[in-house]
Amino acid sequence: MTEAREIERVVLMALDEDAPWGDLTGETLIPEVATATAELVAREPGVFSGARVVEAAFRLVDPRIAVEVPTADGGRFAAGDVLARVQGPARGILRAERVALNLVQRMSGVATLTARYVDAVAGTRARIVDTRKTTPGLRSLERQAVRDGGGRNHRRSLSDAIMAKDNHLAVLTASGADLATALREARDRMPHTAHLEVEVDRVDQIEPVLAGGADTIMLDNFTLDELREGVALIDGRAIVEASGGVNLDTVAAIAATGVDVISVGALTHSARALDLGLDVVIETPADGAPGAAPRERT
């Protein structure tokens, strides 16, 4: 679960971006005493992610706003379901709504897409994992959304593991280094708790990488036959990851080759924001004047 301080950092940044000097419309048009209730309503089915983000957006604008989120992260919902309710000062609700919606629509979109991939490989050994192809500044939230959709997380950052990709290997090759020797020397220098992953794009690279002591071997853009050959060659001596050419039409066949992990950049770089809306009803103000009619806000 994403830490509260990280959620607060992201939400505060978004609120400051959206209303750097306050909400001119709300503060000019909406009476200070006006209160409102609002419901976060699904316009389409999906998988929910972002309960604490919704809570934080309204709480950080005005702590008097009460937020109820009956839908748990990872829960599936249908069109028309009420995912959250808020009640309190109308100005605060109207100021926070767009930030809350932007973030929860994004997270729920990632979770929903991830769940489709996870469902597609059900019954195989393959785990669906994300990549570092995330929205700058939103990595923590998007990684949580992947987990809420039933997926797993790859390394969070460049600081978390050694992952030698094609460009690293190209530099090593150009310098005349022997791949297996270079990897063994890297293992000698890396912390004992770290993980070594190496990307290969040809079957003949697998043995030198195994000799170098790789913990995971990524088979990049392999055909299905090549994937099966790679799995057989590695034979349990390392974790086998498939990457490249992965989409909802191909992922089941890739999983059936026996790979352990399938990394999917599309989970975060191509997920569509889910269609959710905030339906607001302005309540009767304290002076007894009639409240506004219900209206839909998206």
UniProtKB/TrEMBL annotation:
CDD domains: QPRTase. Residues 23-108 form the Quinolinate phosphoribosyl transferase N-terminal domain. InterPro entries: Aldolase_TIM, NadC, NadC/ModD, Nicotinate_pribotase-like_C, Quinolinate_PRibosylTase_N_sf, Quinolinate_PRibosylTrfase_C, Quinolinate_PRibosylTrfase_N. Keywords: Glycosyltransferase, Pyridine nucleotide biosynthesis, Transferase. Transmembrane segments: none annotated. Residues 110-279 form the Quinolinate phosphoribosyl transferase C-terminal domain. Involved in the catabolism of quinolinic acid (QA). Belongs to the NadC/ModD family. This is nicotinate-nucleotide diphosphorylase (carboxylating).
